[in-house]
Specification:
Blueprint: E1 51-53, E2 77-81, H1 88-96, E3 114-119, H2 124-132, E4 137-138, E5 141-146, H3 163-169, E6 173-179, H4 195-223, H5 227-232, H6 237-258, H7 263-266, H8 272-278, E7 289-294, H9 300-307, H10 317-322, H11 330-342, E8 345-349, H12 351-357, H13 362-371, H14 381-392, E9 395-401, E10 406-412, H15 417-424, H16 426-430, E11 432-439, H17 440-446, H18 449-454, E12 459-461, E13 471-477
Parallel strand pairs: 2-5, 2-6, 4-10, 6-7, 7-8
Antiparallel strand pairs: 1-13, 3-5, 9-10, 11-12, 11-13
Helix pairs in contact: 1-12, 4-6, 6-8
The chain binds adenosine-5'-triphosphate and magnesium ion (MG).
Length: about 475
């Protein structure tokens, strides 16, 4: 078995997103029968009244993007957060299958945040492409951001300063990377490996940063003229209500943070006005978060077997034994128990294994993973982490499928059909007429769009339709 030495940066070119499952990017059966295509060419023809369109656009993969340009971002960003030297950049490189971030055995190796585009694995794409005889597959993608390590006191400017907290503020979700691997050669800023202490340290710094932010906001709103006075001076009732919502939200959140409770844990207790009033603050502990337990290579199989059980289960040892795996290490068990108390999800990864896999041929990968006792990479490592991140962000996928391509699109839960169409192009939203829609399972079962139509499975959905996970859609629009 070839073991790969630690990669240094700049040894490989940035490569396209989609490589976590690059086989899915290769063309599938193109077929010769246009009539058999889903979304036949007629859908692309313009008529005087309207056009029917399926995915004419090409995916715009980016390898480096301007950080913090929220208005320009097309993809949701997830920040990799944690203490220095816990493996964030190694994981980031593996996620992006590129060595664009410098990963090395010294704390504060990363200073500027690196941003990479990562394809979201989805086995349904292959099936759809087969049915649609699509020339290619385009998965949907997320952006990951490799953020500098935080240390105790970061909220007061310790370490490399609390500007890194503002890097986290720009993200939509957080993956907290926790070191569970023992290796005397790899420096730990606190001198020993203790994942729960590390989780508390980072959690506390984020809570302190939020508390300071909330306090500043409270002081500012105290300096504002009282709402009643504004109202009597002609201020709108809506503005007054919003101001009241903000005051009460700030009071409640300050109380939770005082007790070191992450805001995300109690977010649903806030009214929708209170939630809206807090949005501009970008509170760090309000962001969806999951833990990535970074384990040693030999621990990966056992850790994954333990952590893939439900976060609320009280013990994983029995579950692991039932799976025929060994018990997880005490570190992994401690991470699982801590996360369970918070109701957070944990995914086992080995940044080291992932970075080594990226250097191997498919046969070598299989051999290496088997030697580690890992049979199914979908349930451990990066694929599991990407999927878990997607779920943590409460995202949904719908598909478009035609001879040119089968493609996955990301929307937030609860998105209506016109806004879902707008993810493809703003014209589709502006001129939305209706969406021809069939569920993924029904389409696969029917074997072709024609058969699905014959069976009455293709519905014509209007502007109020809330797009469901796995919908396959064709948008009819007129601009
Ligand atoms: N699972 C693992 N097992 C063994 N070594 C690992 C593992 N994960 C990461 N490492 C090693 O830990 C060291 C630190 O990794 P890396 O530079 O990715 O940390 P980082 O969290 O990005 O640090 P910083 O915050 O300083 O940027 C590297 O030498 C890397 O090879
Ligand atoms: Mg780093």
């Amino acid at each position: 078995m070839r073991r790969v030495e630690k990669r240094c940066s700049c040894t490989r070119q940035a490569i396209t997103a989609g490589n976590p499952f690059s086989s899915a990017m290769t063309p599938v059966n193109t077929g010769n029968d246009p009539a058999a295509f889903i979304g036949v060419h007629g859908f692309l023809r313009s008529t005087s009244r309207h056009r029917l369109v399926h995915t004419p656009l090409r995916v715009a993969h980016r390898h480096r993007v301007a950080f913090g340009c929220r208005g320009l971002r097309s993809k949701l960003q997830t920040g990799l957060v944690g203490l220095p030297n816990v493996g964030k950049s190694t994981l980031f490189n593996a996620l992006c299958e590129q060595a664009q971030a410098q990963a090395a055995n010294f704390p504060f190796c990363t200073v500027e945040p690196n941003v990479g585009v990562v394809a979201v694995p989805d086995a349904r794409l292959d099936e759809l492409a087969r049915v649609g005889r699509s020339a290619r597959i385009v998965p949907t993608a997320l952006e990951f951001v490799d953020i500098a390590g935080l240390v105790a006191g970061a909220s007061r400017g310790e370490g490399l300063g609390n500007q890194f907290l503002s890097n986290i503020r720009q993200c939509d979700a957080v993956v907290h990377v926790v070191r569970c691997f023992q290796d005397d050669q790899i420096v730990h800023v606190a001198g020993s490996v203790d994942p729960v202490r590390d989780m508390e340290t980072i959690g506390l710094e984020l809570a302190l940063a939020d508390a300071a932010q909330v306090e500043r906001r409270r002081q500012r709103s105290a300096r504002r003229p009282a709402a009643a006075a504004v109202a009597s001076a002609g201020g709108s009732a809506g503005a007054r209500l919003m101001e009241e919502a903000e005051r009460s939200a700030l009071d409640r959140v300050a109380e939770w943070l005082d007790a070191a409770v992450p805001v995300r844990q109690r977010w649903s207790e806030l009214s929708s006005e209170e939630q809206r009033s807090l949005q501009p603050l970008g509170l760090l502990t309000a962001k969806p978060m999951l833990y990535a337990a970074n384990v040693a290579d030999v621990e990966l199989a056992d850790a994954a077997a333990a952590l893939n059980t439900s976060p609320s289960s009280s013990s994983t040892t029995a579950a692991a034994a039932a799976e025929g795996m060994g018990a997880p290490s005490p570190q992994v068990e401690a991470v699982r128990a801590y996360a369970a108390r918070e109701g957070a999800r944990v995914v086992a990864v080995s940044a080291q294994v992932e970075s080594e896999l990226a250097e191997l041929t498919p046969d070598e990968r299989r051999e290496y993973l088997e030697s580690l006792g890992v049979c199914d990479m979908d349930t451990v490592g990066l694929r599991a982490l990407i999927r878990a991140t997607y779920d943590t962000l409460a995202l949904r996928t719908y598909f478009t499928c035609g001879p040119e391509e089968t493609r996955a699109w990301t929307i937030r839960r609860g998105t209506r059909a016109p806004q879902a169409a707008g993810v493809i192009h703003s014209d589709f939203e502006r001129g939305f007429i209706r969406a021809e829609t069939v569920g993924y399972a029904q389409l696969i079962d029917a074997g072709s769009l024609a058969t699905a139509r014959e069976r009455g499975l293709v519905r014509s959905e209007g502007k109020e339709y809330v797009v469901q996970e796995g919908d396959v859609m064709l948008f009819r629009f007129n601009v």
